[in-house]
Amino acid sequence: AQSVTQPDIHITVSEGASLELRCNYSYGATPYLFWYVQSPGQGLQLLLKYFSGDTLVQGIKGFEAEFKRSQSSFNLRKPSVHWSDAAEYFCAVALSGGYNKLIFGAGTRLAVHP
Amino acid sequence: GAGVSQSPSNKVTEKGKDVELRCDPISGHTALYWYRQSLGQGLEFLIYFQGNSAPDKSGLPSDRFSAERTGGSVSTLTIQRTQQEDSAVYLCASSRSHTEAFFGQGTRLTVV
Q: Does residue A11 surpass a pLDDT of 80?
């Protein structure tokens, strides 16, 4: 069965520092891959997605993610974190060619110190 | 509308009562999804609609849960005889068929 692992439950970084959130998936083929962000009391906002093509994808708010097939990973990065980035981040996969039945990771809660 | 709209935003109900949660998808989005977000289980898929039909109901946790969609638009998720373990945030999302899903702000259900 498909699964998504986000190894880090909580991460704390200083404002201005770089960030990398890890995501590994288990699936027989290349899935569609997504990163969503959820601020307190809010719904999920899509940061970026990978369907095919260039393995480095750019998203909103200065985020990027790199798909590495050999490692079954889709890590999220940001070169310089802002205090407003404090939120919970979810990696998700959907079956290629199918509808968006998303399988989510458990999430990583990001805290940003001033 | 501009985004996915869910109502109510908060619902407190007594154990054993029935509840209905409503979702208004983005206009023109043929696909609609319901997810549940709870502390113990994370984010779980419940059901998928394409138009008015539901080809995938595999995530509905029990027969107390049902959903319908009418006119290819509004969807209602109904939970009968609510239990405390049903307490969660219920999220609705919509999309054009094979593109990214856009989520509503959710309905926080508390069963007391």
A: yes
